[in-house]
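anyone else get weird line breaks when pasting these?? whatever heres mine. first is seq + tokens for prot A
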Amino acid sequence: MKLTELHKAKTHSWLILERNNDMQNTHGSVNQYFIHSQYESMIMDPGGIELFSPMLAAILQHTELDKLTAVFASHQDPDIISTLGLWDKAVPNATLYAPALWDRFIDHFDLDNLKYEGINDDGGEIQLGGVRLRLLPAHYLHSAGNYHLYDPAAKILMSANVGSAIKTDSSSQFVEDFGQHIKHIEQFHRRWMPSNKAKDNWIARVKELDVDIIAPNHGKLYKGEQVQEFLDWFAKLDVGSAVR
């Protein structure tokens, strides 16, 4: 597996871990994103234990580990952060940006080296090698303390579980037909997104941004007109309403 580019500029690049179809269509599949500048890099929602080795190997093709200075964790699910203990040993001088709501839980990760920087409820910013990244509140979507990461220069919104599809029906990286994609996301969003008020607040925030790509934790990414199609669909969806 390797990291492939989503965005490249003089200042920095966005990359995603490319994987085979078998891995992409499993319940444990997580999209791993990596921002790389000349001087500093960051991994976002670093994934489960099975993804540590391939992600580490892929990163080493692009930079030295001492330049990986930041780890971002959007929320607490084990599929996206159970490798924190391993990254703690691999990048001992990095800072972990995670919800301040975790203050009384962070010790349970047994972190010896990562410096924990709690994100306040109203979000904030990360400066990464001169690149300004915004931490966008996404509370209750689906975690009580939840954040997305927006890059104004790349026009990419890393949206954690919002927009996620657990399984998809092709190897394409981006949604090609939103109408066909709905069947992969509807049940997930009805069940895992509990609050219509929180959903509406998030949509209002995102509509103020210039977004070319929505990059979720799972499944395909949304690009161009698919971004607006997803936002319009999500606005109409009655969430917190699915019970199996």
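and prot B, same format (seq, then tokens)
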Amino acid sequence: MYKNQSDSKVRAKKHLGQHFLKDMNIARQIVDGLTLHGGYNKVLEIGPGMGVLTQFLLTKETYQTYVIEIDTESVAYLKKHYEELTPRIIEGDFLRYNTKETFSEKFAIIGNFPYNISSQIFFRALEIRDQIPEIVCMLQKEVALRIASPPGNKDYGILSVLLQAFYDIDYLVSVPPGAFDPPPKVQSGVIRLRRNAVEKLDCNEKMFFRVVKTAFNQRRKTLRNALRPIGEMPDHPLLTKRAEQLSVAEFVTLTQLAESIQ
């Protein structure tokens, strides 16, 4: 029988952005979102809390589940209720954790991400993307839609471009506030990211990140004006457009222009 979090004694902590999922059907859908893309056999759950996703992960025989949790109260709960998981509980902060201490090969990431640090988790995942062929996660719906949004959409932004450069992204399901305890003030969404075939961009990666961020910092302006902090760009048709209109490939071209003036 699966554990219902309404029976739990772990207190949700506001400073950690904790909202514990209590809908078992949604939990199962999130876990079933993993496709083994990239051939991994280990999964790391970020912020398992009281294990609502963990209990479904542990039923899978195709991969071995690890968890990383910063909340000591949740760690104690997990050790008590999931004794078989204890050797694979990492007590710490994913944003500061050296994953190579535990994972020598590829592994997937899954989790109900704390909304206040979800973007930071993705930036960290980008840094170690060659280790991570797949991510399935729940986060604030607005952010989830932004990440999965195609060019030309008002939701398309910095995270959209940076993540879509290296991952194919699917929006899977929306989740109402009532599925959590305590309920958040926003809607939630589940997305799946699967590593694409791009090993390296055809431009300097640091400059690519800088161009994308600078372009969207003034997204209402044409790119010629928005990118003035980087320098005076040579004439190019892309510079008459706005950031939200450009595909990843066009941002690569734009980065090559920026490199030419450095």
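btw re prot B: DSSP finds nine helices and nine strands in the chain. The chain has two domains: 5-195, 205-260.
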